[in-house]
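Hey, quick one: can you model this chain's 3D structure?
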Amino acid sequence: QLQASGGGLVQTGGSLRLSCAASGNTFSRDGMGWYRQAPGKQRELVAAIATGGGTNYADSVKGRFAVSRDNAKNTAYLQMNGLKPEDTAVYFCSAGRTYGSLYYPNYWGQGTLVTVSS
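Sure thing. Here's the predicted structure for all 118 residues.
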């Protein structure tokens, strides 16, 4: 089970850190991914982190977002800096598998809403 938190309302240029707490004992063996879905748009992969710590990012967030994980706490994070109105979306965390630069989700958490005001 995955529990995402940390969303909220922030002004343009602000920062938020999302957390994804996982239950169970497979966290350290799972890749983790953060997706987002804006109104009227498809869900898109924002960032993913492999079990070994390798990361991948969507071009739209490179240099602004950072994904990390703490296996001791069974938690993944998404640090979001320099937020823009176009980052407004519901953000979802997932657990899955990474293959090089590819990520395949297997399990989903509930979403957390991020709203960036202009």
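One thing worth noting: The two ends are 34 Å apart (CA to CA).
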